[in-house]
Specification:
alpha/beta; 5-stranded mixed sheet; 14% strand; elongated; Nucleotidyltransferase, domain 5; 7 helices
């Protein structure tokens, strides 16, 4: 198996002391925000079981989430809501949420490893790493924190909009979610520029341009 610490160790050997892994959750859903996490782990972090959040069960993610929060040097969260997603498109919203997450780290990192193929708008030295959540431990930790944080927020939204079943699908385009949309139409947290939502808007209510990318990630 690949050494999930390899990137962090290499950067430490190059003189970087505070390496943050950054990842997002929620590019694919029809509703809710996109959320990113930035995580700096100590060298003695217990990384047993840490991997890409999509490969874990909900219970495993919750357990690892607690461990990460107990042992991480610092964690930053970035949230971009559905209105902003519609305004700037999902790709740009995802990158913005990463910038916000990094800005919420203290101490400030001196190097970033970003999941995916895009760097972010930051002067901090960085590397974009495709499939980074399966290759670098700090990105994997960030993927878990982002996923659990977003799922928890969608559970809160379920209290406001119980007819959509957000507690089950977390805003993803399941059959039940699509059926609810066809019956009730979009609610306040739906992404109105997304295919699968805009079809149910009243005439003249779609004032925001279609996003450039509707990537389905986590």
């Amino acid at each position: 198996m690949a050494d999930l610490w390899a990137f962090e160790k290499s950067l430490t050997d190059q003189g970087y002391s505070t390496v943050a892994g950054v990842d997002e959750a929620g590019r694919g859903p029809l509703a809710g925000p996109v959320i990113s996490a930035a995580v700096v782990l100590p060298p003695d972090f217990d990384s047993h079981g840490i991997t890409d959040s999509k490969k874990l069960t909900q219970r495993q993610r919750q357990t690892l989430f607690q461990r990460i929060y107990e042992q991480a040097r610092c964690i930053g969260i970035g949230i971009v809501d559905a209105l902003e997603i519609d305004r700037i498109n999902i790709l740009q919203a995802s990158l913005l949420s990463m910038v916000i997450a990094v800005s919420n780290l203290s101490p400030r990192p001196d190097y970033l490893i970003i999941d995916g193929k895009f760097k972010i708008a930051s002067r901090i030295p960085q590397q974009a790493l495709i499939k980074g959540d399966s290759r670098a431990v700090s990105i994997a930790a960030a993927s878990i924190v982002a996923k659990v944080t977003r799922d928890s927020l969608m559970l809160r939204y379920h209290e406001d909009f119980p007819e959509f079943g957000f507690e089950r699908h977390k805003g993803y385009p399941t059959k039940a979610h699509k059926s609810a949309l066809s019956i009730y139409g979009p609610c306040l947290i739906h992404r109105r520029s997304f295919k699968g939502v805009r079809e149910y808007l009243p005439p003249g209510k779609m004032m925001i341009p279609e996003p450039e990318s509707e990537c389905h990630d986590q």
